[in-house]
Amino acid sequence: MNKNDLIAAVAESTELPRTKASEVVDAVFEHITRALRASGEVRLVGFGTFATAKRKGGLGRNPRTGAEIRIADCTAVRFKPGKALKDAVQ
Prior knowledge:
By secondary structure, the chain is α+β, with helices and mostly antiparallel strands. Helix content is 44%, strand content 31%. The strands form two sheets. A three-stranded antiparallel β-sheet has the order 1-2-5. It is elongated and about 55 Å long.
């Protein structure tokens, strides 16, 4: 499923026009992004938790040339599924 499929599914299940469903999906994504940027965690009970985690940098290697390159520290987003989601998928 991609974003367009999700928008179509939301529009169908809520009986909203596709443009409104698109706005709703975009708003949800935007608010999750803002919350992760601000507090580093979004908990959706029954679905899962989005959280940020620091990743250490290090040395890597360019596969073409074999030259070492420095990989900078970064912040990554992690997702931990909730019990209800795990049970639904199994």
